[in-house]
Amino acid sequence: MRTSKYFLPTLREASAEAETVSHQLMLRAGLIRKQASGVYSYLPLGYKILKKVENIIREEMDSAGSLEILGPAIQPAELWKESQRWDEYGDEMFRLKDRHNREFCLGPTHEEIFTDIVRNDLRSYRNLPLSLYQIQSKYRDERRPRFGVMRSREFIMKDGYSFDIDQDGLDLSYDKMFDAYKRILSRLDLKYQVVEADSGNIGGSHSHEFMVISEVGEDDIIYCAECGYAANLEKAVSKITSIKSEEAPKELKQVDTPNASSIDEVADFLNVLPHNIVKARVYTNNERMFVALVKGDQKINETKLNTILDTSLLEPASEEEIKEIKSEAGFTGPLNLKDVTIICDKEVEKMRNFVVGGNKKGVHLINCNIGRDFTPDIIADIRSAKEGESCTRCGEVLSSSKGIEVGHIFKLGTKYSESLNATVLDKDGKEKPLLMGCYGIGVNRLLAAVIEQNHDEDGIIWPKALGPFQVSVIPVNVKKEEQLNLAEDIYDKLKDKFDVIIDDRKERVGVKFKDHELIGVPVQIIVGKNAADNQVEIKYRQSKDKLLLDAEKVVEALDSYF
Amino acid sequence: MRTSKYFLPTLREASAEAETVSHQLMLRAGLIRKQASGVYSYLPLGYKILKKVENIIREEMDSAGSLEILGPAIQPAELWKESQRWDEYGDEMFRLKDRHNREFCLGPTHEEIFTDIVRNDLRSYRNLPLSLYQIQSKYRDERRPRFGVMRSREFIMKDGYSFDIDQDGLDLSYDKMFDAYKRILSRLDLKYQVVEADSGNIGGSHSHEFMVISEVGEDDIIYCAECGYAANLEKAVSKITSIKSEEAPKELKQVDTPNASSIDEVADFLNVLPHNIVKARVYTNNERMFVALVKGDQKINETKLNTILDTSLLEPASEEEIKEIKSEAGFTGPLNLKDVTIICDKEVEKMRNFVVGGNKKGVHLINCNIGRDFTPDIIADIRSAKEGESCTRCGEVLSSSKGIEVGHIFKLGTKYSESLNATVLDKDGKEKPLLMGCYGIGVNRLLAAVIEQNHDEDGIIWPKALGPFQVSVIPVNVKKEEQLNLAEDIYDKLKDKFDVIIDDRKERVGVKFKDHELIGVPVQIIVGKNAADNQVEIKYRQSKDKLLLDAEKVVEALDSYF
After folding, report:
1. CB B518 within 8 A of CB B541
2. ipTM of the complex model
3. CB B367, CB B340: distance < 8 Å
4. Which run of H or of E encompasses A337?
5. Closest chain B residue to A152 measured between Cα atoms?
6. Which residues in chain B are contacts of A120 at CB distance < 8 A?
7. Is residue A205 domain-shared with residue A56, that is, in the same domain?
8. What CATH number is associated with residue B500?
9. Is A543 left (phi over 0), alpha (psi -120 to 50) or beta?
10. A89 belongs to a structural domain
11. Minimal Cβ distance to B76: which of A35, A132, A137
């Protein structure tokens, strides 16, 4: 390829709205352009690299025995009504009507379509296991699209679905995908953690996320460096280290706390430590109200709450709703409430003589005790684990980091096969619902994640598997015949063996160098004034090493590098 | 690959709604499944072949110097309002709103997006010519989706756009794509015609369609076998062969034709030939009324009318509208009309003493003559050419056939660059609007077209470039060890060199044979009772030739076939 015939609109600066390095570099290197909020075009260089990522995924899927298909992006509402997700999905789903006023969505995911395919064409357990995947555009109307292609509204995903006759089969299919995902991330040279995860609105019992470690990640990971335990914050657990207090119960007293509402204010005012206060939050699922209690220095984990209460609809209650349970926003406590379910964290159970809200403005109670003053309806782990706490498996100290969720796999079980009636005949000729797994990996998000982990102040440093070209040949001064001729000679020699681009533009050499650093070509062959002696400079993007070399030795040097 | 691990749901019969052979065979061979009207999923076999078609297209685009990118399917309304096509596009465009109530469409085509990309990033004539393409799903809400993937609502298209500084550049870019399209169709072994075509609502001056010859084609082609002239019916011209009549003008007379309205009825009633009658049709473009006149045995070509009148909005007038011009539906003639433009076909100009409608119910006029009785506002070619007429270029007889439009290329000129303000600086430093071409080819329609031209009563006969597998190895009876073992041996030997599938299912051999014929694998290696003598049968799908062969000679035979 020649730069003069390529479309490589590099930029000195990215627009101010690009907050992350990957977003800035993808714009500056001319990989993507924005068409609307969360909607991007891929320019030639960007799409070339994206296809490399797709091919790595495709190879690993194929070698794991999954078969590639292509479902439609437009999906009929009827299917989603059968699975009962049409109403459940909410604002994130793009919906539209055709000319006959029939309802469709743009697929945010494809459980329904894939289940529909197999329910019509699979008859017997003998055709199982079956694993199908596609690489395709998905549509989610994100509340806040950001970070470029990292969180966009039209994005490319590999989503796959497995079908088995029993749990053992599903476990096997799941493990195969688990391993394939690890191979994909390794081939992309990514540093990552596999974490236990919540299944969210996809459903199912068992789920892992593949998290690329990065400061700009939107997810928090809790992990144990000792035993390898890792989970995302929504799911992570830590050991209960509090010992049941042996303090004698003191008399419950009402105290005025006129200007103190937050935990810190109350702690200051009453001169106690936050972990002697019990924090209460009121939630509603539109049917019933709930009060959740954790220690004052802990955070309530709403995902855990949703799971325990078997709902996905919990929302913080409004001031009016809080009044209905005979309480007051900012001063809620567990005593004397009306028509409410009290869920108490296991750590709270260990406490004695703690401070709680008085359910009146400017009032708290001290020396409150479970059993004597109130009785929780549910006691469970509802707090978020955090760095510095202890691992439930090995007792060592937990660490935390930020991660970019690039993959998510689920054991769905029979959730979709039952609602959509996807059954096969088993060995005994009985109809059995299929056991399903579902496996997603974000293709363009992977690209951004690679850049987050591989860049310097000059631009992107692609791993060898993804370099947009393998080699750039850069004549320093195209007006000097000996330089241009030698560069063209080298280009001719390389082009059948390597993916090479020659920079034949009439630009200042500084501009050229900057461009090739920015787009991250792994090796540059610079043809300058030493061309007279048939010598060139070879420069490696990653190490920044430079070396003067006989022109004849270029092929040899590249062979040994790649 | 093994059939036991593949997903190959073949059917004995396709559903009744599959009207064409390609639709029936794509369903029966398990290539596609319907998800909604005009919306399909591709199963593994279908998607495998589709990717082969895509790759052939991609190779030819790349070698023609076009660069692959990927635009979004979701396109903001603002862009389409800038080009003034948001309102123009009508019901065929899928429209939707996001959570903030902003309007989008699902791209039916991408002139706006590609023009937007270059207007932001192209600055100078030195970056030209530039040619960009993508292979992507397109969305058109067809009034009547049919013939499976041939006319569907979500379909895959390669669309490309070229950008040049002047007309010479555009001509060159256009010719390159013209040639690339011919190479693509040749590599797919298709019989086709390239025809001159109308530009329709895409716009521009110059346009060709690539028509695959087929009885089920929805387009009519007129062509001259002698000189190679070919055009679609909308655009085709034929030579005027009538000689100006030398008959003396006779007296204009009103005659009652009580029950005669159609040309045939009037001809019968008045005992004249249809070509002595002038047919009149009334149209409106919502601003003005038009009467079009052709010889009674000709058809009015509305596309030509639209082009001549520089509109795309002509519609037949209603009975009420016809009354407004002082006429009567079914009896319109060119005399004494009010506020109307009369457009007369060139053949009518040659006629004397002809019959016309009398603008009153049950009344015609005979012996009408141009000049004496009325004067047309416009005389032009407004009739449809037909088989049997003469070629305007060489005078030989024109033929006609049906065609499937698989490709369409346009010289757009500056239509989009002007409305979207896409300019570059020319040599003299002046802003100039880009000259654009646009080039579309229907990927899944090509697949269907290949099947229409390549099948027999047993199923699909893929050209070598598209076979889903190259070879099937079919053990006749998998329970007989010697057959299964020999088949497995042959499979092992072939699998690194050929794309081979072994049919290891415990099915009756008749079922297996039927499946492999149906899906159209080019060569079958049948391992039956001769396995004892280390012999197998080789069967060629296209020729139906069968040959007994030593197992050792299989590789050799395949080498010489492929």
Report:
1. no
2. 0.88
3. no
4. none
5. B72
6. 33
7. yes
8. 3.40.50.800
9. alpha
10. no
11. A35
Query: Which chain A residues are Cβ-neighbours of B132 within 8 angstroms?
Result: 7, 44
The count of domains in chain A is 3
Does residue A168 share a domain with residue A202? yes
Does residue B9 form part of some domain?
Answer: no
Binary contact (A95, B91; C-beta < 8 A)? no
Q: Are B137 and A135 in contact (CB under 8 A)?
A: no
Task: Enumerate the residues of chain A whose CB falls inside 8 A of the CB of residue B143.
Answer: 99
Residues of chain B in contact with residue A154, where contact means CB-CB under 8 angstroms, are 72-74
Residues A444 and A483 occupy one common structural domain: no
**For residue B514, how far is the Cα from the chain centroid?**
32
Closest residue in A to B33 (Cα) is A117
CB contacts of A47 in chain B (<8 Å) are 68-70
Reduce the DSSP state of residue A171 to 3 states and report it: helix
One digit per residue, the tens of pLDDT, for chain A of length 562 reads 999 999 999 999 888 888 899 999 999 999 999 999 999 999 999 999 999 999 999 999 999 999 999 999 999 999 999 999 999 888 999 999 999 999 999 999 999 999 999 999 999 999 999 999 999 999 999 998 989 999 999 999 999 999 999 999 999 999 999 999 999 999 999 999 999 887 665 556 689 999 999 998 888 999 998 998 988 888 899 998 878 888 899 999 999 998 888 899 999 999 999 989 999 999 998 889 999 999 999 999 999 998 898 877 889 999 999 999 999 999 999 999 999 999 999 999 999 999 999 999 999 999 999 999 999 999 999 999 999 999 999 999 999 999 999 999 999 999 999 999 999 999 999 999 999 999 999 999 999 999 999 999 999 999 989 999 999 999 999 999 999 999 999 999 999 999 999 999 988 999 999 999 999 999 999 999 999 999 999 999 999 999 999 999 999 999 999 9
Tell me the count of A-B CB pairs closer than 8 A.
141
* Residues in chain B within 8 Å Cβ distance of A121: 7, 9, 30, 33
Residue B329, domain extent: 253-380
CB distance A41–B6 less than 8 Å?
A: no
**E strands, B317-470, where?**
340-345, 354-357, 363-368, 378-380, 399-413, 423-425, 431-433, 435-442, 455-456, 459-460
Residues A421, A346: one domain? no
How far is residue A433's CA from residue A412's CA, in Å, rounded to a whole number?
12
**DSSP state at residue A113:** H
Say if residue A63 is in the same domain as residue A199. Answer: yes
Q: CB-CB: which of A40, A68, A74 is closest to B154?
A: A74
Evaluate whether residue B181 is within a structural domain: yes
Q: Do B299 and B375 share a domain, yes or no?
A: yes
Instruction: Say yes or no: A193 and A276 in one domain.
Output: no
CA distance A185 to chain B (A): 24
Last residue of a domain, one of B451, B483, B510: B451
Distance to chain A for B550, nearest Cα, Å? 32
Is B488 in the same domain as B446? Answer: no
Read out DSSP for B259-283?
Answer: T--SHHHHHHHHT--GGGBEEEEEE
Which pair of structure tokens corresponds to residue B316? 């037949």
Residue A444 lies in a domain: yes
Cα–Cα distance measured from residue A290 to residue B90, given in angstroms and rounded to the nearest whole number: 51
- Taking CB atoms within 8 Å and a gap of at least 24, the contacts of A79-83 are A79/A112, A79/A113, A79/A116, A79/A420, A79/B35, A80/A105, A80/A112, A82/A112, A82/A419, A82/A420, A83/A111, A83/A112, A83/A115, A83/A416, A83/A419, A83/A420
Residue in A with minimal Cα distance to B40: A72
Nearest chain A residue to B110, by CA = A41
Q: Which among B451, B481, B512 is the end of a domain?
A: B451
The reply to whether residue A122 touches residue B40, judged by beta carbons under 8 angstroms, is no
Substitution target from A6, A7, A50 for chain B, most B beta carbons within 10 A: A7
Question: B471 with B500: CB under 8 angstroms?
Answer: yes
